[in-house]
Amino acid sequence: MSSRDISKLLFTSVYPLYVQKAERKNRTKEEVDTIICWLTGYSRAQLDRHTAVKIDFQTFFDQAPAIHPDRSQITGVVCGVRVEDIQDPMTQNIRYLDKLIDELAKGKPIDKILRRSQGL
Question: What's the pLDDT band for 4 if we cut at 50, 70, 90?
């Protein structure tokens, strides 16, 4: 595994970090779950099952019922890289999720995070 292959990171190890990041900024686990479900098409029950077992990002996104078609509206920088410029689709999906969690932690309203205010 390449040291830069983030698809092999365990989603189940990163998920609690997403929740902690949100909660430090007075946001909730439920908001984190809403974001993940919006992006991936998982139901809450499916997400709960995936967070209870060891699963890497590759498998998590490969098994996603319906990656949201409006994810391309997510723009900005994560880890010094513009998410819209990432060529690898798997890495881009992971970074889209990172960007959405960043927006939540920065206090952005959930409707804007989910791109609902843009007529969607």
Answer: low
Q: What is the mean pLDDT of the chain?
A: 92
CA-based radius of gyration for the chain: 13
CB contact set of 111 (below 8 Å; sequence gap of 6+): 117
Q: From CA 27, how far away is CA 41, in angstroms rounded? A: 21
pLDDT bin (cut points 50, 70, 90) of residue 57 is very high
Beta carbons within 10 angstroms of residue 101's beta carbon: 23
Domains and CATH numbers, the chain: 8-114 (1.10.8.290)
H/E stretch holding 70: none
> CA-CA distance, 89 to 96, in Å (whole number)?
10
Under 8 Å between Cβ of 90 and 61:
yes
Using CB atoms within 10 A of its CB, is residue 36 exposed (0-12), middle (13-18) or buried (19+)?
A: buried
